[in-house]
Fold this sequence. Notes:
Layout: H1 8-11, H2 15-31, E1 38-43, E2 46-52, H3 55-58, H4 65-71, H5 74-80, E3 84-90, H6 94-102, E4 107-112, H7 119-125, H8 127-132, E5 135-137, H9 142-152, H10 154-162
Parallel strand pairs: 3-4, 4-5
Antiparallel strand pairs: 1-2, 1-3
Amino acid sequence: MTEPLLSPDLIKLDLEKFMREALLEAEAAGQAGELPIGAVVVLDGAIISRGRATHQQRKSQLAHAELNALLNGGDKLWTDYKRAILFTTVEPCPLCLGAVVMADIPHIVFAKHDQVVYSRLSVETNPYIRRHIKTYLGGVLEEESTQILARYKPEQLKYIETGGQSVSP
């Protein structure tokens, strides 16, 4: 498989630097007993918001890291969304992908591929989504994300890696 062409908006950025910040959010979520997923929104080379999974704390299935990062984006994200990049430690689920599309954020960079949600298929085949998403890049510091998931939620890691299929011992 060939490397995807990067948008000029991403070529000049240190993608690993920003993914490390998302991984810090994932680590904090794991330490808090949450699903260890983290996200940051970057604009013009600076982090403008952070988010981590807070399902247990908020008692909400909707408290995903990506949604929290988007909701924390404030005025900067509201006015400058066309230059924004979402970094997240796990491939976005359909809910989060839809939120990114509706927020008009053109770039998604993620660490761990998720064989359950496989949102890449939606990005590749849905014209509405494709029109909104210029960059959909996975695998940035994937091993680091895998290690955090393994440490805090090994059963979730197995689920993500097997596409929800049961795995024989």
